[in-house]
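Objective 1.3, modelling of assemblies. Example input:
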Amino acid sequence: MPGATDQTLRPFLWRASKLFPDREVVSRTHDGVERYTYSEYEDRVGQLANALDAAGVERGDRVGTFCWNHHRHFETYFGVPSMGAQLHTINPLLPDHHIQYIVENAADTVLFVDPSLVEKLAGAYDEEVFASVERYVVVGEEVPETSLSPVTDYESFVAEADAAYDWPDLSEEQPAGMCYTSGTTGKPKGVEYTQQMLWSHTMATLPESGLDIRSSDVVMPVVPMFHVNAWGLPFSTTAAGAKHVYPGPSPSPEDLASLIEEEGVTLTAGVPTVWLGLLDYLDENDADISSLDRIVIGGAAAPRSVIRRFDEEYDVDVVHAWGMTEMAPIGTVAHLKPGMESWDREERYEKRAKQGLLASGLEMRVVGDDGEEVEWNGEDFGELWVRGPWVTTEYYERPEANEEDFEGNWLKTGDVVTVDEEGYVQIVDRAKDVIKSGGEWISSVELENSLMAHDDVAEATVVGVPHERWQERPVAFVVPKDGADREALQSELTEMVRAEFPKWWVPDEVMFIEEVPKTATGKFDKKVLREEYDDESIVAGKSPDDAAPASND
Amino acid sequence: MPGATDQTLRPFLWRASKLFPDREVVSRTHDGVERYTYSEYEDRVGQLANALDAAGVERGDRVGTFCWNHHRHFETYFGVPSMGAQLHTINPLLPDHHIQYIVENAADTVLFVDPSLVEKLAGAYDEEVFASVERYVVVGEEVPETSLSPVTDYESFVAEADAAYDWPDLSEEQPAGMCYTSGTTGKPKGVEYTQQMLWSHTMATLPESGLDIRSSDVVMPVVPMFHVNAWGLPFSTTAAGAKHVYPGPSPSPEDLASLIEEEGVTLTAGVPTVWLGLLDYLDENDADISSLDRIVIGGAAAPRSVIRRFDEEYDVDVVHAWGMTEMAPIGTVAHLKPGMESWDREERYEKRAKQGLLASGLEMRVVGDDGEEVEWNGEDFGELWVRGPWVTTEYYERPEANEEDFEGNWLKTGDVVTVDEEGYVQIVDRAKDVIKSGGEWISSVELENSLMAHDDVAEATVVGVPHERWQERPVAFVVPKDGADREALQSELTEMVRAEFPKWWVPDEVMFIEEVPKTATGKFDKKVLREEYDDESIVAGKSPDDAAPASND
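Predicted structure (tokens):
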């Protein structure tokens, strides 16, 4: 068989440290902002690999991390996979029983844990499920009082180790990373990333069809490094030879603004709430974010208002992207096509508010209820299926989930989408959240976006609740802003929705709540609302006959 | 084993035709400029695959092309590999015995041949070596009178075929392409490209660290499509969703200028002589090439004067690149690093005149005579070794060449290079052309560049000839421009070199010739000059003792 050298991550590190030895890795820690160069980074990665070797970590072993975004966490990103072990980033926001399931399922041998997360991890500790863990490394310079044992601090762990490491030639099929999806239902599902998958994803994120990262960029991932490898940015930034900025534990809007200003950040990334917070901060404070060129928003839909404000007030492009743990994670990116830059603002925002164009190298299908592909007309919707070199074809040790979520090598994403004539994908709902009323589909997401556009609404979510006649009906849960006139708001919201959507989309009720319950990854937890909602209120509700879909009348 | 879908070329075509259905493929043919869209291109590719199916082509079969740069040749680029066959592009400029060797070695089953090349192919025809060829397809609308048989014209061949083709799911290890290196010595060596290698190369060319191709680009490959897949541009352009412009058979500088102006070409690529010709044309004629943003120059070193003229007179960046058939072919690209844009012109040109920075995803070593890696100081030189996912690890059926040209998975490129402190590679010579005089190395390429900078020199080459005392001594062969004063030129050139280089680098003789003999790929054929050079002239030559390297005195 003809062929070439395997696709592995290490050459990205080699190139960055050799061609960009003086580019910096900057990290906000509890002790202030630390910085070093790629050249020093490479040495530290070598030290880490030697230390893990000495600790008995072998090829194929899983090494877990329970950490925020900082340079030491980044050192594990290249150190662990390049020695042939598998980097398993654990989400510390998960409930204890999920952490237990994950650590036991992955059989981690070493766990790296942030000082501020030691207590959380110790709280989840269970002798039996943590049996595989031979060592805890507290990622800092000191070890807080803890029951975890044996435990070392990171700096002592690597201090004596040599910077030169004899890196092995790895197979591209070697598992290099692992993340668990944190669904709202059932046990988390493990996704393994081979060296090849991470290589492919890294290469795919570099060009325009990905995230368009250049060596001149200064990249600050605000998205946590335990969320699908911070969307791959630590790898991509290295492959581009760009500068890294890690914002550390729980960065405030002020921290972010100050890092942007002081480090000259050009590209940052995170979920929408982070950027809403930054906008609020900028309203009240002087901060120079003029270096910032674009913000990648994912994890949840980017509100049009955020896209508009960053463009009009700060000349920053919001780059909306969509992905999944199952695809390492980038799938679609809402960059503009040639010619669209001259469109008027609102037309541009409309495109940017969609999840965007499929990245080059992937394929997709949008499958309707009848199993056929739907038309690309921006209206017909169906479930998005994707496949490609960085899309997994299975979950780790979960044959029953594999049966359900894959069709051959296609991943059935569980996202219900439309695709417009230009190929822009828009998520209208999660398949499980879409509201099926009288034989038609209602998009909970579109209703939510509409409600959240109201000035007096802080957050809103719409869920389908059982209904005797229409199977399901939408009910809106709204968190009003402080001082809002709730009575007026209720009728205004209903009017707003009525003006914008078919009449059967209008929620039967608008209920006020103090907070939308969220999952560990910050997504709306609709399951809780559905459970809490009293069935009787439906029957007693105001669902008018004329709110039913025409096709059912 | 965890994993994902195989890396194949087809998703690039799928994405271009779905997301950029109206972007054009433009082609200059004997009958004028033809154009169609990606959407139509996809249909034509489907028709071609069905026609090849009907002609009996099966998975793994080799399909040869003997064609210039045009849309029909481009159709074979996706059609042949995506049906599971192997696209073998043959260089029609090779001597007949090489063509015979190549066709026999590759065992092509179908040969696509340009109308203007039918006679050349028929001239190389030999019943025994062409035994595998079951069909000839003349790539046009008519078949000229020929002895080749059975023969069809391309349009009849595909006319009846269906546009829908049931593309197979291929393994990424499936051979997809094949090119032969055309060295000046020995038999051509075959390099097979798997689907994975072409996928990797395509992805690597898209970002800044490659050729930086965007969907807004209009790409015109002047480099022939039989030269390592036109440096991969037909694949890369498709993956980016950019517009293609193919300049057809033997484009004149006028043709190129007119295509740039009329099609809005932003990126073009070819060997230096093409661009010298275009500059000469532009000096004498009105043509608007303002759409042009950059020219990729490879195949031979880009003269500094060309880089300067395009920048100063046309605001066009010359992007110098280096590659090899063995690496599909891109290896290094001389883009500027962050901050260098503000350097003064001459400093920038100095970087751009080098072969550049290794592409992201590859690794390299520069190995000195002692087998150790040389220092990156811009002075020490050694042989460049490379490896990576698009660098082959073997030649097809050539175990003796494999023994010589590879060390493990490293390709020993045969190029002697320096690397400067910033990591820019500069080729100082081919290993076989470097002149070894008195135990020191003399770079024939540096001497040639110096000689060619003289206004009265059209072309120049320097070869090492045997010498009794110093093993080898340099001799220059110079093609003077019309009207040059040869006597004056001879002494001026000697003075010029003496001022710039160590004294033992000064050629023992400067000989005037009418033309530098060239290989089929347009490179200087130094072997011919060495053979033609009369040994006695060395002994009778003027090699002074003081021209010897200091280390030998």
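The domain at 437-552 of chain A is CATH 3.30.300.30 (GMP Synthetase; Chain A, domain 3).
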